[in-house]
Amino acid sequence: MSGNRISGLGSHQLSRRRVLELGLGAGAALVGSALLPRGAWASGLPSTPIRFQPFTRELPTIANGQLTVLKSQPAFATGCTFPVTAKPSFYAITMKRAQAEIIPGVKTEIWGYDGLYPGPVIVSRMGTPDVIRFANELDVETSIHQHGGHNPSDSDGLPMRDQLIFPGQSKDYCYPNQPSTGPDGRPDPNDNPSFLWYHDHATDITGPNVYRGLAGVYPVVDELESGLIAAGKLPEVGSAFDLPLVLQDRLFNADGSLFYSPFEHDGFLGDVFVVNGKAQPFHVVQRRKYRLRILNGSNARIYMLRLSSGARFLQIGADRWLFPHPVERDRILLGMAEVADVIVDFGAQQPGDVVYLENILVQDSGRGPGGDLNAPDVRVPGTPLVKFVVAGGQPAGDLSISRTEPLRPITPISPGEIVATRTFEFNRSQGAWQVNGQFYDEDRADAQVKLGTAERWILKNGGGGWWHPIHIHLENHLVQRFNGRPPPVYNSFKKDTTLLGPGDEAEVFIRFRDHAGRFVAHCHNVEHEDDRMMIRWDTVAP
Ligand code: C2O
Ligand code: CU
Ligand code: CU
User: Fold this and answer.
1) Does residue 250's CB lie within 6 angstroms of at least one atom of ligand 1?
2) Are 217 and 173 spatial neighbours (Cβ–Cβ below 8 Å)?
3) Considering the domain boundaries, does residue 250 fall inside one?
């Protein structure tokens, strides 16, 4: 099975769907999860974990230049049309192979947007459309999804034949970045996002493509957020005090190459924790408040985050959106694709103190961690992900955000607006993954919704001990009830991904604004997604 090694795969790896179509699915699933204990199937698995000294490399940030901010280009001819006259920003990104130093002193081949892992940071302004020309210099097809974005169907980066970018081709993605119109016909800034990300979404091979490095962050600012920044409540985007943290886990071969198995249908886990492309980095902080935008960019790993100092997080947002007001948290459970937008205050620390951002969740299988959503299996102290070293000296100013700061209001969806209720049950079948007993088929619409209406969707975990973070494209959703009860306050605001533990059920309201066409919803365990735990749903004009 050494052919499982990414480095050993040819240009056309056997995708999971192809494995299933060849009738190898059940067998492969058995090899992956039942016949042999985990660790054994993989005679191809690295026999010894790669060894390195943690906390010897700096956390890549925008301020230290290790996270590159994408520069705009002179305008080029494009097929993009926008309903507004605002002048777009033009960008170009090439997807290609490159070498990265993820493990200190070790070169690893990655696939990166512009050869970078993570991809360049795209800083965007609400009201200014973005046109991005993505060129594919890899040898597999790609599709680029702006996760959390509100975009026309043909720019959504769907796993659909007519949306794929084949090797040697390029495609222009048209992101309008327009605040939508509220019920009164005026722009409604309440749905404006703060922190999108972009990642590969190619049919069947999203897992390996993202794993090899095809993901990056996409912060967005609008007037409301600029106001909070101008008032000194939030830091300047991209400044030393606004840190995106992309959490991922990876497995390495002894030679430093990435290891991935397309046969791991349960979800692929790594044993090295990587933040912004570096294995367990450190970062020197001042004695003041920081905004950390923590994205779980892992394929199948769920995190429970805590600060080793015992200090609390002041959570100001989740997924792509700011909360109406901050919420204090001791620990934060973060499923794949979820974001915790938090303020962390190092003001009470002494010079030289060390504070770790730790993951205390125990998870040894792609199935998910042990326990359930309310009582997950945690171990303190956990694995340190980032080491923050507190510097001496006077901090350069501080944020004035208070515990009750009004942030971004929510336009509620009332039960009276609901025109339809749909139930989607996520379950395992035939060694792969289904929704309502069916595999994803891009040619079959599983739901058709009318623009200008709101619906109730029941998202149900079919059980079996599996965890599924359910992601819905195009629109955010408001969780009304979780297992029949109101959700905890931090999960009661706008979300685009809702984590379901074994047997859980979420009732969510969604308002469909504009953009008629095809969209998807799926489990964001990307191995489950590649194994077809996805629906296509369409929006139609009223
Ligand atoms: Cu982040 Cu459809 O995915
Ligand atoms: Cu999405
Ligand atoms: Cu899943």
Assistant:
1) no
2) no
3) no
Task: Report the distance separating Cα 470 and Cα 129, nearest Å.
Answer: 28
Closest CA to 492 of 483, 482, 501, 484: 482
Q: Write the pLDDT tens digit of every residue in 371-398.
A: 999 899 999 989 999 999 999 988 879 9
Q: Which domain holds residue 317?
A: 267-390
List of E strands, 297-334: 303-307, 313-318, 321-329, 332-334
Tens-digit pLDDT profile for residues 229-285:
999 999 999 999 999 999 999 999 999 999 999 888 899 999 999 999 999 999 999
Q: Whose CA is nearest to atom 1 of ligand 1?
A: 147
- 185 located within any domain: no
> What is the distance in A from the centroid of ligand 2 to the CA of 146?
6
Q: Within a domain: residue 280?
A: yes
SS3 of residue 12 by DSSP: coil
Of 390, 425, 455, the position where a domain reaches its end is 390
* 119 within some domain: no
How many domains does the chain fold into?
2
Which residue, 357, 390, 423, sits at the end of a domain?
390
The CA 373 to ligand 3 mean position distance, Å, reads 14
Tokens standing for 159?
A: 């796993």
Confidence of residue 463 (pLDDT cuts 50, 70, 90): confident
* Across 438-442, average pLDDT: 97
Q: How far apart are the CA of 537 and the centre of ligand 2, in A? A: 13
Task: Name the closest ligand to CA 434.
Answer: 3
Structure tokens at 339: 């974001």
Does the C-beta of 320 come closer than 6 Å to ligand 1?
no
Protein residue with least CA distance to atom 3, ligand 1:
147
Task: Indicate if 386 and 461 belong to the same structural domain.
Answer: no
- Ligand 3: centre distance to CA 508 (Å): 18
Task: Point out the ligand nearest to the CA of residue 160.
Answer: 1
Is this model's pTM higher than 0.90 or not?
A: yes
Residue 522, domain CATH: 2.60.40.420
Cβ of 473 closer than 6 Å to ligand 1, yes or no, is: yes
pLDDT of residue 40: 29
- What pLDDT, in 10s, does the model give residues 130-145? 999 999 999 999 999 9
Same domain, 427 and 386: no
